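Students often ask why inverse folding is considered easier than folding. One informal answer: many sequences map to the same fold, so there is more than one right answer. In these notes we will look at a single instance of the problem. The structure comes first.
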């Protein structure tokens, strides 16, 4: 009897083991990472069939990843870094928050790039200015150009600080 029971246990265990070649080892980490990369759900698929418990682990981890992806801090960081953000993966209030955060981060990145370009142009004008004689007729135009560029850069600095303030108040940074 004992031998039959052992044989039955081994047989049933053999029925549960499937070919796992197409499945990731850690379904939880895989589902979470897949969601954080803003990828569509890829499991189950023909090369990776999941049992109900495995599907639950994958699904729960994926939901956790999507909750993090659709959070303000992650969406803001993606905007600042220039990363794409697929709002279709987010739902409800999280979608609205993620959209605002991503737009704010994108705007911050754009203002920083514009400010840096303005400062570079001002530096170029000042370099050309330094090479001119004090009585050169084009000197006044270059002084005005450099001053205007620096003024515009300071305006961008104000915008940058305002956007950083929004991010701080919203706790996105």
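Output (designed amino acids):
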């Amino acid at each position: 009897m004992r031998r039959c029971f052992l044989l039955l246990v081994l047989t049933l265990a053999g029925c549960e083991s499937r070919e796992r070649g197409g499945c990731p080892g850690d379904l939880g980490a895989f589902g979470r990472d897949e969601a954080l990369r803003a990828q569509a759900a890829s499991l189950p698929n023909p090369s990776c069939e999941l049992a109900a418990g495995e599907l639950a682990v994958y699904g729960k981890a994926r939901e956790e990843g999507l909750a993090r992806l659709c959070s303000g801090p992650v969406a803001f960081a993606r905007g600042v870094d220039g990363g794409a953000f697929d709002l279709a993966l987010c739902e409800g209030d999280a979608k609205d928050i993620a959209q605002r955060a991503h737009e704010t981060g994108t705007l911050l990145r754009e203002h920083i790039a514009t400010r840096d370009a303005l400062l570079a142009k001002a530096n170029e004008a000042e370099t050309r200015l330094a090479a001119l004689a004090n009585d050169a007729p084009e000197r006044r135009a270059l002084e005005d150009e450099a001053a205007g560029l620096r003024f515009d850069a300071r305006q961008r600095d104000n915008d940058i600080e305002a956007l950083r303030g929004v991010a701080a108040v919203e706790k996105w940074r």
